[in-house]
Structures are given as C-alpha cells and as structure tokens.
Design goal:
Order of helices and strands: EEHEEEEHEHEHEEEHEH
Largest sheet: 7 strands, parallel
CATH topology of the largest domain: Alpha/beta knot
Strand order of the largest sheet: 8-7-6-11-9-12-10
Low-confidence stretches: none
Structural class: alpha/beta
Distance between the termini: 24 Å
Shape: elongated
C-alpha cells in the first residue's frame, strides 16, 4: 500500500490537494488513478485510508475515508550528529528515520568537515523514509548548532556519546530504558577534539561509550549506535 506524509489535518470526509511532487509520484510514477486507494498520515492524527478523487493538470486530490491506525509515538530518542559531507549526512538522516529516532540535531564541532546542510532536502529524505517504514511520524530535523551552545542548552536527558579514545565502556553495557528520553551523539570524521572530549566527560548527563575495536565512519557509527540503543532500550523490545 502506498503511504504519503501530508501536512493537512486528517478526518473522515476531508479532501486533500497534494503538492506537485506527490501528485506526479502518484499519477506518473505509480500510475494511480481515480478510485485507487492509498494511506496518508501527518504525524498528529494517525494513519488514514484515502482514495484518489481526481487527477488533473493542477494536481491530485484525495478523499479521506476512515482511520486505519490511531496516532502512536516511538521512543523519545534524539540523534545528535556532527555535520559531515552531504551524501553521508543524507544516509544518516534516512537511517535515523528508519531506526525510529524522533529528532536529528545537527552539531558543529571543532573538526566538522562541512559548513552547511540543506534542511529542506534532509526533511524530505526523513519523510520518504517514514513513508517506507510504516511509522506514523517524521523525525524533526533541527538546524546546525555549535556543540558548546547545544550542550549549554541541553534539556538534561541522558546522552551517550561515541568516544573513539579506546577507554570507554561498551555501549551495550550502559544502556537501559530511559522514560524521560535519551540521546546519542556522533562526532565528526576526525573525532572530537581533546577539549570537546574533556567537556563531554565532565557533564553529569553524558556517558562515553565504545562501539567496538574498529574506527567507524560517522554514518556507520550512527546506524550501529541507533541499532544498539533500539535493541537494548527502545521499541525493538516491544
């Protein structure tokens, strides 16, 4: 079943005009026509069964019929990741959505090797991944923030940061369900600077962890850390 993320409010009898990209996807790529069924969600009202009402030059319109699933939320998990090159950052956002992160926070560290990110492109990637995985929400993508400011404004939730120094505890040994939310921090390709590591290790809410004996690229580290967290403390145990 085709699923689409839409911004509209969803209720029985609602009519939705899709944007040009989604209209083209349904009508041209997927060759759907009037009467064909899809499902839609908006991150607030659950998932709904809908039918294509019209296909026209101005776009595709849907009629919303009935709720298929009520709204639910996955674990309150943030992925904080230092900016990396575009292709790898896009992979990180896609996999964070697939693996259930609620937010992706972009950080600027001393050794960050990228200086900007296209938030609209990353949000679109997150939405497409949410459509594919069946989740009922889309991860929020937050704009880049310098690591010092991010930590100064931290909300106190437990933060595990992947430390390549070689003297951290294996990640699986420190994970436990966190009712108040949790976060994972992945550094840049060059690792955290000595000053950043020292500051992180001094924070009461931060715990250094190891992802094993090999040095991982940022995208691999993010996937590994999210998978470990979900297996030990997240909704993979449901």
């Amino acid at each position: 079943m085709i699923r689409l993320f839409v911004p509209h409010d969803l209720a029985e009898g609602a009519q939705i005009a899709l944007d040009p990209g989604q209209s083209r996807y349904l009508a041209v790529v997927m060759r759907q026509g009037p009467g064909d069924s899809i499902r839609v969600f908006n991150g607030r009202d659950g998932e709904w069964q809908a039918r294509i009402a019209t296909v026209a030059k101005r776009g595709v319109a849907l009629d919303v019929d009935a709720q298929a699933r009520p709204q639910t939320a996955g674990p309150d998990l943030d992925l904080v990741v230092a900016l990396v090159k575009r292709a790898r950052l896009e992979v990180i956002v896609e996999k964070a959505a697939e693996l259930g992160a609620r937010r992706v926070r972009l950080a600027v560290t001393e050794r960050t090797n990228a200086d900007h990110a296209r938030l609209d492109r990353l949000a679109a990637i997150a939405a497409e991944a949410a459509e594919q995985t069946g989740r009922l929400d889309v991860p929020e993508i937050l704009p880049p923030m310098k690591i010092d400011r991010l930590l100064a404004e931290w909300d106190g939730r437990p933060l595990v940061f992947c430390d390549e120094a070689g003297d951290a505890t294996p990640m699986l040994d420190v994970l436990a369900p966190q009712p108040e939310g949790a976060a994972i921090l992945i550094g840049p390709e060059g690792g955290f600077s000595p000053a950043e590591r020292e500051r992180l290790r001094a924070l009461p809410f931060a715990t250094p962890v190891s992802l094993g004996p090999r040095i991982l690229r940022a995208d691999t580290a993010a996937i590994a850390a999210l998978s470990l967290w979900q297996a030990a403390a997240g909704d993979w145990r449901a």
